[in-house]
Amino acid sequence: MGAGGSAWKRAQEARRYERELREQLRAAQWEVRNWEAASEGERKVAAKLQVLTRRGWRLLLDRRWPGSRSANVDMLLVGPGGVFVIDVKNWRHAPEAAGGHLTAGGRTYDREVEKLLKVTRLAENAVSARNLSPVAVQPLMVFAGRSVNARLGTVRLLGERDVTPALVAERLRLRPSEVKAVADHLERVFRDYEDTSARTGPAAPAPAAPAAPSAAGPEDAPFKDAPFDDALFDVEGIRNAALEAARSAPIEQWMTFLHPDQLALVRRNWSGPARVSGPAGTGKTVVALHRAAYLAARTPGRILYVTFANNLPRVQSTFLRTMAPAVADRVDFRSLHSWAGEFLRERGVASRLDRDKAEGAFGRAWRSHGRGTVLETLDPAPGYWKEEIDYVIKGRGLTAFEEYAPPLRRWRRRTNLRRPHREAVWALYEEYERNRTGKGVHDFNDILALALAEALAHPGATPYTSVVVDEVQDLTFVGVRLLHALVGDAHNGLLLVGDGQQAVYPGGFRLSDAGIDVRGRGQVLRKNYRNAKEILDAALAVVADDSFDDIDGTPTAGRRDIDLTYGDGRVTRCTAATRAEHDEALLTALHALGPEAWPDSAVLCRTGAERERYRRLLTRAGIPAITLEQYDGRPVPGVKLGSYHRAKGLEFKHVHLPDHDAPAAAGAGDGTDEGVVRERRELHRSQLFVAMTRARDTLWLGSVTRG
Ligand SMILES: Nc1ncnc2c1ncn2[C@@H]1O[C@H](COP(=O)(O)OP(=O)(O)OP(=O)(O)O)[C@@H](O)[C@H]1O
């Protein structure tokens, strides 16, 4: 068929759709005429919404608040787009939402908004029994006879004309069976306001009864008793919205439904700093995101959601925008260092972060104060000593040798540093500081230290009422103290989420040393939702012997008790004699998956250099790839390519780890201390464990036999 023919066919379809919608509206208008107790405005809006009931929605009209004798809610609407708590307004003057207030005709109607929010909370409570997150429940004010499309905080304000297309355009959240279960439940909890009325279902067509004027307030004067007309029925808008909704995929199940344990954490009232931990894939980030949305809907302040990695905030922000668009603008997703830099700029504190010049300063310090010292007897390479300065000395904010001297415990460091070693490290540190300050530059740790000093000097200097920290095990002691300083021990102020087993950086700290008390406010999640059993078993085997101390001080065995929920999976081990054969096998595995599977596949490498190597390999083989630095959580074609560090917090259906068991840089026998070697290998295993547990369905492990 030619282009003209298909245009004709589309026009035909559009006309048929339009005819159908108008017929549905007329039928709905007949039905709502019978709802005598409804006000004129409610009936007009209900007629528009009743059209949605032909598209799988359930409309519950005029319901009593649970536990109340007199309070009612105009409508509860449950459908593929979620649950909507609706207050209908039939106002003489046009509503305006500005400066955080709802006004009309010069009067303020904030109490109406508060009332709607209150009943929305009741609906949230009710649907939690069906494991629905509060993000699936939205307050909505609909203005009869008006065209409005605005937001006031979490409340959506829509005109009679706009409401149907807006709801049709919502992304698919509930399946038909879920709509039924949730609506049935709400119907039981929110009883019919008029017990005798049958106003929740279609009624027999009957002549129109005269509309009763509403008594809700001075603005609530009804329109003149006009007959129902469909001028406020936006057929084209509904059609376009339906097409738009059909184009976008349903939102992920976890963005709506939570396990009761997760839901309890999201909704809990904490009297101070709290901690959520648990093994890989147990839904810690899911809880953190729902919690951020929950808090954002309840506090006037903003929420800061922080991770260590630079790429995660983009991805997590995309997730929140999808699952809770109404609050997405009230949550700031930031990496710790970028946030601290911004904070210093805003506060007018001078800082000059220059990684290269700081590296140069350390290089010079090593040459003059490291080489030829006792430090070389433990590890002749400077990297370990740079880590000691970054993670143990500066990361913990130590400023005097006596703080660093024995018996200071160096968490997760395996070398035994006696006093002469520590003196040598301290001399190296001081020289580094002299060189660095001589150049007038800062390193990352300095930025955090400056921000901490500023936050302590001016408490309450940020707009944040809550701070959520994800992957907290990667932060330094100073970083965690900084975030604690922003909100202190306030109720629901600080939430620390993470898993000590997934630490991919050296060093560590204890929350108690940072003055953060989470006793009685800690929860461990145990149900893994991500990994197939085979994959989790293979990953746990890597770290089975590496027990670790969590940041709250709990000693934990490497092989942990985890409940599995996920289905079958596959681990493929490929051992090749040469690197070329190994790479060929990787390409064969990717081609076998095929282009449809590539967007949910990843190739993860131990280092940035390795990642570049595989990027070139994939490009030459014609396999599209995007790096994890570019990925923002939205679906894009192509395989994801990144380092183990960048893959933290993410997941993919298919994960490939080329050359995954290549030996760590330092090995026994090259003069390096046994403790250093042990520590490197342990860190190596933690990183590999993190990379392996990114896989949901299949895991490909490549090895090269090195003769
Ligand atoms: N309630 C749920 N229902 C369905 N799936 C869930 C649920 N909670 C979590 N998941 C699934 O499990 C995956 C892992 O969750 P999440 O990333 O929050 O785990 P995590 O504990 O933060 O993992 P990690 O520590 O390994 O980064 C989610 O992406 C989601 O696919």
Structure explained in plain terms:
- With 707 residues, the chain is α/β, with parallel strands linked by helices.
- The chain folds into four domains: 14-253, no CATH class; 258-350 and 446-556, Rossmann fold, CATH 3.40.50.300; 355-441; 569-704, P-loop containing nucleotide triphosphate hydrolases (Rossmann fold, 3-Layer(aba) Sandwich), CATH 3.40.50.300.
- Helix content is 40%, strand content 17%.
- The protein has a six-stranded mixed beta sheet, with helices on both faces. A six-stranded parallel beta sheet has the order 12-11-13-14-10-15.
- Helix 1 (3-33) runs antiparallel to helix 2 (40-50), helix 2 packs parallel to helix 4 (160-168) and helix 18 packs antiparallel against helix 21 (674-692).
- The longest helix is centred in the N-terminal third of the chain and has 31 residues, at 3-33.
Map the helices and strands.
Layout: H1 3-33, H2 40-50, E1 58-64, E2 72-79, E3 82-89, E4 95-98, E5 101-104, E6 107-108, H3 110-128, E7 137-143, E8 149-152, E9 155-159, H4 160-168, H5 176-189, H6 235-247, H7 260-267, E10 274-277, H8 284-296, E11 302-307, H9 312-323, E12 331-335, H10 336-346, H11 355-369, H12 375-378, H13 383-394, H14 401-404, H15 419-439, H16 444-457, E13 464-469, H17 477-487, E14 494-497, E15 522-524, E16 527-528, H18 533-543, E17 548-549, E18 555-556, E19 563-564, E20 570-576, H19 579-593, E21 601-605, H20 608-620, E22 625-627, E23 639-643, E24 652-657, H21 674-692, E25 695-704
Parallel strand pairs: 3-7, 7-9, 10-14, 10-15, 11-12, 11-13, 13-14, 16-19, 20-25, 21-23, 21-24, 22-23, 24-25
Antiparallel strand pairs: 1-2, 2-3, 4-5, 5-6, 8-9, 17-18
Helix pairs in contact: 1-2, 2-4, 4-6, 7-8, 10-16, 11-15, 16-17, 18-21
Bound molecules: adenosine-5'-triphosphate.
Adenosine-5'-triphosphate is lined by residues 253-254, 257-259, 262, 278, 280-286, 499, 502, 529-530, 649, 651, 693.
